[in-house]
């Protein structure tokens, strides 16, 4: 009885965690550059010291992020960029670490710092990129940022810096709670990564697929609760039988 109850309890708990993962994916179906997370369940043995496991329990985990590319959305805005093919834009996370994103909705703040739509500084060749006052700004395919300064002739383009574009091994990337990707080691610039100006990359979430998984997990949760109830009823029946025999 105890083993059946333990398995059902851990199954119900981890089905809820699985629903949280899938619900987060679904909630970000329209988030620029979002990468969905996979979710999987498996059984794990419980060991006490040496020997065979005494029981098993269910486990839900996020084994990896889905790095499939999202659809490109044309905006026509000069500061909107999308990574063409594989690769990422390097940004500075809130804790100061270097992180990576595919969200290319950029703007220049009042201090002249180039930032992403969620206010993260974009990394250049020597740290966060600062842009002098300008009347026109262009971002090239290779990430080079050029401007026409205040009062300059329209054709007087001057190179300011270059957006740090990287293409690390995706197996070494881990998604943080902030939705950014972090590498286990330093990542250098990859000259083969290029940008498309005037476009944004949409989320790679498949809403129908995510909703189907959520409904499946909900049914599994219901089955686990029913198993817990059945285990309780069997335990009560066993107790009554022992009282009768006593």
Structural commentary:
With 246 residues, this protein is of the alpha+beta class. The chain folds into 2 domains: 2-66 and 205-245, no CATH class; 72-201, no CATH class. The protein contains 2 helices and 18 strands. The chain has helices at 2-27, 207-245, and strands spanning 40-46, 55-61, 72-74, 81-84, 88-92, 98-101, 106-108, 114-116, 123-124, 127-128, 134-139, 144-149, 157-162, 165-166, 173-175, 181-183, 194-197, 199-201. The strands form 8 sheets. Strands 6-5-14 form a 3-stranded antiparallel sheet, with no helix packed on it. It has a 3-stranded antiparallel sheet with strand order 11-12-13, with no helix packed on it. It has a two-stranded antiparallel sheet with strand order 1-2. The model has no long low-confidence stretch (mean pLDDT 88).
């Amino acid at each position: 009885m105890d083993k059946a109850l333990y398995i059902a309890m851990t199954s119900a708990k981890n089905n809820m965690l699985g629903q949280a993962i899938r619900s987060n994916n679904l909630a970000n179906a329209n988030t620029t550059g979002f990468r969905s997370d996979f979710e999987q369940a498996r059984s794990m043995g419980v060991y006490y010291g040496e020997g065979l496991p005494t029981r098993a329990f269910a486990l839900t985990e996020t084994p990896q992020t889905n790095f499939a590319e999202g659809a490109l959305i044309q905006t026509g805005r000069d500061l909107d960029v999308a990574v063409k093919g594989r690769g990422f834009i390097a940004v500075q996370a809130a804790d100061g670490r270097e992180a990576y994103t595919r969200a290319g909705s950029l703007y220049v703040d009042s201090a002249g710092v180039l930032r992403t739509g969620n206010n993260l500084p974009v990394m250049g060749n020597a740290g966060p990129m600062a842009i002098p006052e300008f009347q026109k700004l262009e971002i090239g395919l290779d990430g080079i940022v050029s401007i026409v300064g205040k009062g300059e002739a329209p054709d007087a383009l001057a190179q300011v810096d270059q957006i740090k574009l990287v293409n690390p091994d995706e197996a070494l990337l881990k998604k943080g709670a902030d939705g950014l990707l972090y590498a286990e080691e330093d990542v250098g610039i990859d000259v083969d990564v290029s940008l498309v100006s005037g476009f944004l990359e949409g989320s790679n979430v498949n809403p129908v697929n995510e909703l189907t998984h959520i409904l499946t997990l909900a049914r599994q949760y219901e089955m686990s609760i029913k198993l817990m109830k059945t285990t309780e009823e069997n335990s009560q029946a066993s107790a009554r039988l022992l009282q009768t025999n006593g």
